Amino acid sequence: MSTLTDAATAHILPEGTREITFREALREAMTLEMRKDPRIFLMGEEVAQYNGAYKVSQGMLDEFGEKRIIDAPISENGFAGLAVGAAMYGLRPIIEFMSWSFSLVAADQILNNVPKMLYMSGGQWGCPVVFRGNNGAGGQLGSTHSWTVEALYANVPGLKIGIPSCPADAKGLLTTGIRDDDPYFNLESERMLSDKGPVPEGDYAIPFGQAALRRGTWSGERNSDVTLVSFGRPVNFCLDAADELAKDGVACDVLDMRTIRPLDIDSIIESVKRTNRVVVVDQCWPFASVASEVITQVCERAFDYLDHQPLRVNTDDVPTPYAKNLEAEYLPHKGKIIRAVRSTLGLS
Amino acid sequence: MPIRTVYKAQIDHLQILDEDGKLDEKLARDTLTDEQVLFAYEFMVLCRTYDEVAFKLQRSGRMGTYPQNKGQEAAAIGSGLAAVKGRDFLVPCYRENAALFLHGLPMEKILLHWMGDERGNQIPEGVLMTPLSIPIGTQMLHATGIAWAYKMRKEDRCVITYFGDGATSEGDFHEAMNFATVFNVPCVFFCQNNQWAISVPRESQMASETVAQKGLAYGAHCIQVDGNDLFAVYKATREAIDRARGGGGVTLIEAITYRLADHTTADDARRYRDEEEVASWRGKDPLIRLRKYLERKGLWDDARQAAHEEKCKAQVAEIVKNAEGIEKPSTDDIFDYTFGTELPAELQRQKATLRTTSLGQDPSQAGLGSDHSRAS
């Protein structure tokens, strides 16, 4: 069982870090694992000759050759299904979706085959495939290219889903996902690929189901006023909001879930029992979202500790707008988070 | 000359053993020995008996549902014999039981599957096949992936995947064909064209005259065979496998056959098929023509038939006994096959709270006791 104590130290990086971008961190995770494990290959649209539509796989064709870095036809269901077969016969595929929005045409393979293969074969045929790519509003890409798939996909048992919020997590989560014997979805944000941050060199794997406490007065002296729970890019909005709220004397625990499947609900519960207030920030639509799930579980397990009803900040319940100002307002941004936190405290 | 032909194609149809059991000796050369044909016929009768017993099990409430294989045995056995057991890999849908049995799948497994038990999908070590695939067409991509793995590992093996005419309308078929040919993986696509996708006849499913020609667009070798002709199926599949193993390309085989029974036990084909049509196909039954052939060669007679049928009945009764005699699975199994790695904490909790009213409820709240005690 994870605890808030673990979460409080989870963000501390080992010695030997340097600043690299989110995309470089992803590439490093794949490259280091591929050097060690000849079973791994990377397949997707534009991943080889073009070095990746978003340059995540830059230089990998040169290092690993065309047998392991493979340009696929534009056929998401095709290469997702091929990966299932390859994994069943002992290979370890990494499949890049240029965007998770495009994974919808592969839904039967990734939702109806990948997570059920082991179960339906009575524990016999695992499906250790990593699917990764851009998720969420990419910056004026329009409704059909701006999917956040976590609410939809997290509903399916048998999947592990990680959403890194910083370059170090991008490397650590993807490394764990590649090594894991179960299927793993790595949801990345196009908007963060150029973000820089400290990333450990060499081997770096983050255990699944362990949240990281990014902000918090958790030291035993004084509890924070509110628990902010988030994952992926909105964690950064929460940090901005927490910094601003701190100026008014409002202290927030910011819990970065890092993986939503498995979900470190124990750390959330422990934090809520100290703060008695919770706001969940989620870049998905609100209905039947990860935020709804977190709040349900908080109510089931810590109802008596709540001093205010749990709140959630999601994207608006509409298709992602195309216009720049509309898209910005649609997202769960800093202003919305601050309003929600102040509301749980009875502040105007 | 502004117009020139850039592509021409034809689809050949292969038949070696006709409906009257007459063999084209020239085409049959280097195919099956008498011993193999005799074995194949006996196996067909066994599988037909199995099929009929399975149908009765469903009708008497001892099995959930069952798709009969009746009429399609030559396609399954001919192709199954062409693939090498323990070397080539079978990726089935659900109407080629005989091929799976030939490659070592214990016969009670298929009964268990349709009786609703995941253990029916557990394939014994060394038996090279995936479990039955119920979503239409998805398995063809898995076959391509397995063949891709063979190629990556430089293993001299081949994958053969089975599907029906209906599945060739799925995107998966086209995506799998495209991947297989463009990556040149050792894969054979075996279509059992049994004329009906549940109640939709072939001509309402596709405007193409044949299924085989669909493979031409992908640069596959394409052939149509009489699917009720053991020799033709064997020969075409054998050639396709040899070609695939040598890196010579992918083949799409269209085996023309007929579903003599309903789609599944949940279907009643009398509601949409003419009795005349069914009757004409009964005359093309692969068992009838093979029996005629064997009798003409003096390798079979009524006495042998009667004795073999008795033997098959006893053998199938034993298989049914094994399938029905298996102990019920443990309720722990509900959770235990969800992940290959350690059960995540949230599932451990759900497993512990199996009998509470809410999945997130603490076991202690439900009076079950657990480590998840409430912090004060």
CATH topology of the largest domain in chain A: Rossmann fold
**How many β-strand stretches of chain B?**
8
Q: What is the terminal separation of chain B in angstroms?
A: 91 Å
Strand content of chain A: 15-25%
Largest interface: A-B, 57 and 49 residues
Describe the structure.
The complex is a heterodimer of chains A (348) and B (376). Chain A has 13 helices and 14 strands. With 348 residues, chain A is of the alpha/beta class. Chain A has 2 domains: 182 residues, Thiamin diphosphate (ThDP)-binding fold, Pyr/PP domains (Rossmann fold); 133 residues, Rossmann fold, CATH 3.40.50.920. In chain A, the strands form 3 sheets. A 7-stranded mixed beta sheet of chain A has the order 3-2-4-5-7-6-12, sandwiched between helices. Chain A has a 5-stranded mixed beta sheet with strand order 9-11-10-13-14, sandwiched between helices. Chain B has 2 domains: 313 residues, Thiamin diphosphate (ThDP)-binding fold, Pyr/PP domains (Rossmann fold); 47 residues, no CATH class. In chain B, strands 1-7-8-4-3-2 form a 6-stranded parallel beta sheet, sandwiched between helices. Chain B has a two-stranded antiparallel ribbon with strand order 5-6. At the A-B interface, helix 4, helix 5, helix 6, helix 10 and helix 11 of A face helix 6, helix 7 and helix 14 of B.
Topology:
The complex is a heterodimer of chains A (348) and B (376).
Chain A lengths: L3 H7 L6 E5 H15 L3 E5 L15 H5 L4 E3 L4 H13 L3 E8 L7 H7 L3 H4 L9 E5 L15 H5 L5 E3 L4 H13 L4 E5 L7 E5 L11 E4 L10 E5 L3 H14 L4 E5 L2 E3 L3 H11 L2 E4 L8 H13 L8 E3 L10 H7 L3 H11 L4
Parallel strand pairs in A: 2-3, 2-4, 4-5, 5-7, 6-7, 10-11, 10-13, 13-14
Antiparallel strand pairs in A: 1-8, 6-12, 9-11
Helix pairs in contact in A: 1-10, 2-8, 4-5, 9-13, 10-11
Chain B lengths: L12 E2 L10 H4 L5 H26 L13 H10 L6 E3 L5 H6 L5 H8 L22 H15 L6 E6 L6 H12 L4 E7 L2 E2 L2 E2 H4 L15 E6 L3 H16 L5 E6 L18 H8 L3 H11 L5 H24 L7 H4 L8 H8 L24
Helix pairs in contact in B: 2-3, 2-11, 2-12, 3-9, 5-12, 6-7
